[in-house]
Amino acid sequence: MNMINNSQNLWSNIKSKYSIYFVLIVLFVVCWLANENFVSTENIQNISTQISVGTILAFGQTILIICGMLDLSSASVLALAGVLSVSIYKTTGSLTIAFIVAILVGVFCNILNGLMVTKFKTPPFIATLAMMTMARGAALMYTNGQNIYQIDEYTKFGQGQILGMPTPILFMILLLIVTWYLLKHTVFGRSVYAIGGNEEAANASGINVDRIKMRAFIINGIFVGIAGVLFMSRVNGGMPNGAIGYEFKALTAAVIGGTSFSGGIGSASGTLAGAFIVGFLDNIMVLTGVNSYLQQIVRGAIIALAVIYDIWAKTKRVGRKKGNAEG
Amino acid sequence: MMNQEIKLSVSNIEKSFPGVKALDRINFSVKKGTVHVLCGENGAGKSTLMKVINGIYKPDSGQILIDGKVVEINSPIQARSLGISMIFQELNYIPEMTIEESLFVGNWPKDKFGKVDWQEIRKQTVELLESEKLSYRPDTKLKDLTVSDIQMLEILKAISYNSDIIIMDEPTSAITQKEVAVLFKKINELRERGTSIIYISHKMDEIFRIADEITVFRDGCVVDSRPKDEYDMETVITQMVGRKLESVFQKEDIAIGEKMLEVKGLTGEGKFKDVSFDVSAGEIIGFAGLMGAGRTEVMRALFGLDPYQAGEIFIRNKKINIKNVKSSIDKKMVMLSEDRRRFGIIPIRSVRENVSLSSMKKFIYGGRLHAEQENKTVADFCKKMNVKTPNYETAIMSLSGGNQQKVVLAKWMVTDPDILIMDEPTRGIDVGAKHEIYKLMTMLAKEGKALVMVSSELQELIMMCDKIYVMAKGKVTGVLKREEFSQEKIMAYATDTIRQEGVS
Fold first, then answer.
1. Nearest residue in A to B360, CA atom
2. At what angle do helices A19-34 and A292-318 cross, to 10 degrees?
3. How many other C-beta atoms can be found within 10 angstroms of the C-beta atom of residue A287?
């Protein structure tokens, strides 16, 4: 076979690999031009804080989706972990214990998810759908459906600042690094990609598929627990009905960020870019006074377009698209 | 019978994929009522051209002519309406479908209300099965059939469309000798009915049994096209690889060392029973048998992919327990699977990641990935295996089958194994790549590795092995030493028509 134009090949590789960042930059510039209030330290910081909780959930989702799974229960488990954490804080007065409890609850629920998927071979969609309902029910039962108020110091988690940077943003950056590190620099991460790409071949290559899937859920649980603390802290109370729909926010960010639902493809930075695309859009629509119902339609359309673009860019790279679209 | 009328021809077909020119100004034609064999190494462009003719790929330029008229083919459905059917090398079927559903898939007859007419389907299926003297029930699910049954059905499907041109892409890669005979009878019938058949194959003996004309491809070009009588095997091979190859591989004498692997009484319920064998350093042992004899099942259990119910496994005379694949790899035993796409590769990931898949701990330690080390190892082993790829970040699915197989071999070599189980290592691989695999196996044996080779090609077993175990119906029915090798003996044991004393 003859090699034709290696540089052109490289360029199309870069284009499809970094396509999502182009979209983000273009969107940023468009927003900048559309409204003078968009680019300011305060506004960008606001956007970043607003997307932080959803993005942290999205990092967990990213790992799971790359592995060929997903978590529909993340927002419900967030609520359960959050209300339990707040309530423990109110009885013990210890922020540390409250933080640890949230993580333990997140991990516990995700171990159940993991067991359903690995031991009982339940499809992740169904397993986490069941957990979604159970965890929300548990959160409501524990609080009797009432919000827990007066959480005093607990607000430090989500409303504090370190060196002038809001804590949720710091958590988001920290977990971005953790996710990136796990995916790129650990045997676990490589295995996650392999399992999502072809589970049977991963197994036949000596990867313990069930163990990796379990670990993916446990890591997701840690992220969900942290998100629970940040969320409750930001809304000034333990809200059993909080964060409804956040699991889809998280899925949206991951998918826009190029994580493939067929598994085996995705990255932490892509997901962050996806989250910012949604964040920028929401923000610019508010700034320019777009009708709030229309905002939803636009958000939905963006998901569809992002995925279509992504599939188009990828098929071009692999050269499986038929016809002479190579041009 | 030999009508000289040209049924299908292509002129100046060109097709490029990013980075590769897959077809370069292809001209070739098929006469009515003939079998036209296409030969060429993997990646030579045969399958790509067939996909162009079948409407799966659109050519960048060039024309397709049927009965002298230019046609444009944009989809397999359109190809079908022009009388072209294709039987693919890798069968894609829906296991839950019944025979009758699959025969009419995409083409279901409808009644006057627009509802699928199941009675009509049943009627036509029964007729078709009877006319071809096949004893299947129309409501049998495909998952309950063997690969060769499904292959026969594909052929039946092509016939049911009344196609004038049938393309067969390596139809014998998964079926037994006996079934090959049935297939060839079918092909002869079709030829007599005036159907043109384009037949892609790597198997030389087959090619010369069935061909009327032969066209050889290399590197996306047609090298030569002649009637069979003007060809001999040597010429075809030389044209295919572009250089002269010893057509028969010569086994080298290799000193046999200590016993590496011994299996005693291995039993997997319902699959195989009481299988015992051993292999030493530098030795190559073979497993012969018909499809479904249980050879693959034994190897899967041995490698930790399936559980086994009884038996003992010794590696270097130490009894070991195989719990899963990981424990086999740790014990330096690896297995190349017969089904590369399913068990061998992670299609969307890079060549690099596929090569390091089973040895990740060699590159990821001390809390980080050592990328330079990984890149170097991957490059070294890919070079050693002669993998052809634009670069190591290319997704493995864009490589040809032979190159994918070499990547899988590279993956196992990185783990530095002592024992290699190779299940059909040359299936679907062209002559040139086969020789490379044989050479590689010889090299590994010389390095003191113990090799177990499962193959359906008797010639290669006879050529490569020191000892051949023959299996039938889940049992070892015969063991032959090198001096006793003969195709007849192996087939006799494989069909279980003779019994050897001392072997159950």
1. A187
2. 150
3. 15
Query: CA B322 → CA A84, A211, B271, B307, distances in Å?
Result: 44, 18, 18, 9
Best to test chain B binding among A9, A205, A312 (most B CBs inside 10 Å): A205
Question: DSSP of A46-64, one letter per residue?
Answer: HHHHHHHHHHHHHHHHHHH
Provide the sign of the torsion angle of the four alpha carbons A92, A94, A97, A98, taken in this order: positive
Question: Cα separation of B446 and B440, whole Å?
Answer: 10
Q: pLDDT tens across A221-247, in order?
A: 999 999 999 999 999 999 999 999 999
Q: Strand B368-369 and strand B364-365: pairing?
A: antiparallel
Measure CB to CB from residue A190 to each of B16, B328, B360 and give the nearest one: B360
C-alpha to C-alpha distance for B125 and A249, rounded to whole angstroms: 50
User: Is A277 in the B-facing interface, judged by CB distances under 8 Å?
Assistant: no
Residue of B51, B72, B303, B325 best to disrupt the A interface, most CBs of A under 10 A: B325
CA distance to partner chain A, nearest, from residue B143 (Å): 18
Q: A2: which chain B residues are within 8 Å (Cβ-Cβ)?
A: 20-21, 24, 219-220
Portion of chain A with pLDDT greater than 70, in percent:
90
- Closest alpha carbon within chain B to A184: B369
Using pLDDT thresholds of 50, 70 and 90, give the confidence band for residue A169.
very high
CA–centroid distance for A4 within its chain = 39
pTM over cut 0.80: no
B residues 345-364 lying closer than 8 A (beta carbon) to A? 345-349, 353, 356-358, 360-361, 364
pLDDT per residue rounded down to tens, chain B (504 residues): 444 688 899 999 998 876 567 888 899 899 999 999 998 876 678 888 998 998 888 899 999 999 889 998 888 888 888 889 888 776 667 878 888 888 887 777 888 888 888 888 888 888 888 877 777 888 888 888 776 677 778 877 877 777 889 998 888 776 777 778 888 888 898 899 889 999 988 777 788 889 999 999 887 888 888 898 888 887 887 787 765 555 556 778 888 999 999 999 999 988 899 999 999 999 999 999 877 789 999 999 999 999 999 999 999 999 999 989 999 999 999 999 888 888 999 999 999 999 999 999 999 999 899 999 999 999 999 998 888 888 999 999 888 778 888 999 999 999 999 999 999 988 767 777 788 888 889 988 999 999 999 998 888 898 899 999 999 889 999 999 999 988 778 878 887 765 544 443
Selecting from B219, B344, B347 the residue whose C-beta is nearest the C-beta of A1 gives B219
The closest alpha carbon to A203, from B325, B396, B412, belongs to: B325
Which one of B16, B356, B368 has the shortest CB-CB distance to A4? B16
Question: How does DSSP classify residue B251?
Answer: P
Record: contact A1-B357, CB cut-off 8 A? no
- Give chain B's domains with CATH numbers: 6-96+141-241 (3.40.50.300), 248-332+417-504 (3.40.50.300), 341-416 (no CATH)
CA pair distance B496, B499, nearest whole angstrom: 7
Q: Which domains does chain A have, with CATH numbers?
A: 47-311 (1.10.3470)
Secondary structure (3-state) at A87: helix
Q: In terms of Cα–Cα distance, which of A17, A67, A64 is closest to A193? A: A67
Strands B35-39 and B213-218: parallel
Do B350 and A193 contact (CB within 8 A), yes or no?
A: no
Residues in chain B within 8 Å Cβ distance of A261: none
* ipTM tops the 0.90 cut: no
Chain B 376-405, CB below 8 Å of chain A: which residues?
388, 390, 393, 395, 397-398
Q: Identify each DSSP E strand in B230-316 by its residue range.
A: 259-268, 272-280, 284-289, 310-315
